[in-house]
Queue: 2 jobs
Job 1
Amino acid sequence: MRDRRISESTIHRLSHYYRALTALEREHFDTVSSRELANREELTPAQVRKDLSFFGSFGTRGLGYPVKELKEKIARILGIDRVWNVALIGVGNIGSALVSYKEFARQGFNIKLLFDSDQRKIGSNHKGITVLGMDDLERQLNENKIELVILAVPASSAQVIVDHVVNCGIKAILNFAPIKLAVPDDVFLRTENMAMELEYLSFSLVNNLPRRSDRKKT
Amino acid sequence: MRDRRISESTIHRLSHYYRALTALEREHFDTVSSRELANREELTPAQVRKDLSFFGSFGTRGLGYPVKELKEKIARILGIDRVWNVALIGVGNIGSALVSYKEFARQGFNIKLLFDSDQRKIGSNHKGITVLGMDDLERQLNENKIELVILAVPASSAQVIVDHVVNCGIKAILNFAPIKLAVPDDVFLRTENMAMELEYLSFSLVNNLPRRSDRKKT
DNA sequence: CTTTTTTTGTGAAAGGTTTCACAACTGGCA
DNA sequence: TGCCAGTTGTGAAACCTTTCACAAAAAAAG
């Protein structure tokens, strides 16, 4: 209806609402007010209402929002009302931790394939998935209809590998290598830099910032 | 540093500048212009100059910024010109990956202590550090002058543990449990939620968001 | 059925961040 | 020396996000 752009912060807050709604559902709430939702995620009621109103008005005045429907609606908006086929490249320390990260599976991210360039790792098993070699990459990504790639390789090889991945037509990549990767304009890339979060805390301690933030922007 | 508030985004960009400057130093650049710095991190020259001007003016008109000095200055601002004593609680999948994460050590985050509540893990060795039991927590954090805690425990036990940590006087916590933790106002808390990043990618794919600003004319 | 209470949805105001545009300064060169 | 090219530093403008405040709607109470 409108072509107002939805901000990154709004999308991240949807993830928070989804989490809160999951808890509310477990606690057998039928409806929830913007105030309650805001309290649970440390936001303001006005913000909750503004965010949700971007996608239509599914609350009831005087009552609040229906927990189950709202949760489903947000799942649909976020695209997690379905299963995504994910490949994970790099079965080192971080890579093998991510294979076992239950939160991914819980939200429909199904890690189907594992890759590594290390001959000693190829053929080994992680959570029932056999690690494949990088020469199989292109064919396997296509055959298994992979839509999303998680990159957990060393910074030094990340760009080369991401080029391959992009070549296979993958349009979404979550990168854990602490490096700025170049990808075409039509590929979605997010880089998770854990050292940067520690740097933020370090800055906060040193400068004794008068506030605390548990939320991220960019 | 007057009482102008520095935004979270600015601080994160400082981390990016730091990374770019590290590369520039390796490439033997003496000076760098805001334009070059901006290109390397996909920002605008104006933004680079605005960010840096928050902390004083250390560029030279007509020349640019001195690479080495600027890098040192940013390190000082971020508080990474020193070593931080870090404790890591939870030596499961993510925890053990983080112990070996070289980027932490490289930026002065020294993981000194490991904790776990699992009897089978207590006493075991990770990268030369012996895993301690949780009953030792309070004493050990104090004795080892720990300033920063990384939490990599299951969501179900995270709040109880964070309460202990806060009790020990720790003022900065990096949390990997996918849950909203309550801490006093004077404690800095950051929560790293990897599933949320995948959700953002999922949203982008489903809604085919226009990403990446097309910059720039001239 | 009428009144009171609750809570949404949303324009408008406030607040914050990024970009623009240009004066001011520097180094190099003739 | 004077001039040109390059680049910073920074108010002002443009843009974006959050908060405010209240009418409208629905439920609950009497």
Job 2
Amino acid sequence: MTRQHNGAASHISRHSLHDAIVGRLRDLIIEGELAQGERIFEAPLCETLGVSRTPLREALRSLASEGLVELVPQRGARVRHFSVKDVHDMLVLIRSLEELAARLACESAGEHDIAEVRELHDRMMAFYRDGNRLDYYKTNQQIHTAIVALSDNEPLIQTHASLQARLKRIRFIGHDGPELWAAAIAEHEAMMTALERRDAQALTAAIGEHLGNAWERVRDMV
Amino acid sequence: MTRQHNGAASHISRHSLHDAIVGRLRDLIIEGELAQGERIFEAPLCETLGVSRTPLREALRSLASEGLVELVPQRGARVRHFSVKDVHDMLVLIRSLEELAARLACESAGEHDIAEVRELHDRMMAFYRDGNRLDYYKTNQQIHTAIVALSDNEPLIQTHASLQARLKRIRFIGHDGPELWAAAIAEHEAMMTALERRDAQALTAAIGEHLGNAWERVRDMV
DNA sequence: CCAACGTATAATGTATACATTATGCATTCG
DNA sequence: CGAATGCATAATGTATACATTATACGTTGG
């Protein structure tokens, strides 16, 4: 008989246990179930996740490289604690990365790709009008990721994603007041029109301002 | 009374086997002993390094997160292969990172720190005059790392280090002709004077040009 | 002769057992 | 009574054994 997975891509993800654990732990950290600075004991977590220590430890190594976990030799793992300065520095870096991505995107992005970002933007606006905070937030993140993806620069995309992941937890907590929320919407509008005109100068400025303000939005939550 | 590990750093590195393996493998890859795209079999490597599979596998996870190793589920590890585009994209990103670092460094770096970079620069010049290629190259790298360190932005420093590590192998192969070598020296001179004048504009421009040219220097070696 | 299947082998993935190191508590000495 | 020390406990680090999956090769049927 033919193998279970034939030509048509049925299920690509031959669910790797490693990735599953990494994903699960990442969620636990982002949702705050594992608090900042909290010690991570292997044995109880193994019990909870139903896996043995070996794959769990490998997952912790991965998360440590991602910067979400701190691994001290002979002293185990901790959920990494981010200081106010850490968050600020990450935002400064992300801003620079997205500005670079903006320049590259205006050069290399195809019409179709830009249209997809527009679609995300419109969807986000709909969530905004409906007052759907969670989906608004998620789509917002997706837009930033999508613009970076337009740069067609894999190392840049990876680096950005890693930093974005570290900040997710902070942003998850941050419940911006409605006034800041509205400002962010306006900034996104500016980004969108600049992108569609492929105006690198304007797009870079818009993203720069947007992420500069992002610091104001989250600085009090850290 | 006073803790055993007081201000003076006695012996920080309680030599972690993990870090030792990671370092060793990194060297093997950089020096080309493990070729690009080459399959990494765990068992023989364990024999060679004299360790068991467990810590070796954890080390491979770390290197995978660093981007030096490619890990495919159920199909093992490979030394990651970098295409011409990959190298180009990494240089574009590194350039942007160092430009950012340059701006931050001009704001926050102390006189003493800048003096240390000057010292590195002078030492590099000495190696250049002596025709000591290897130490010249190493010191060159150290200068770039040192300037980024002046930014006082930990995420930036980490990101830069990771990318720098991935490129080390390429640069290790690249034996620039003397004419390009001389040009690099001149560019470094410009960087140094700009840094000492804390002229962010000039430093950014110098670094940008330097890394733009870096692409020309390595593009044929990939 | 070619193609497809099945089996043997070897590699990776996971679990468990063992070794080493850190940590907390009780005890004892100053 | 306080501080230091030693032991018990528990955690991490490492090795090994077992399970699963991929791969290569020989075989067989068309």
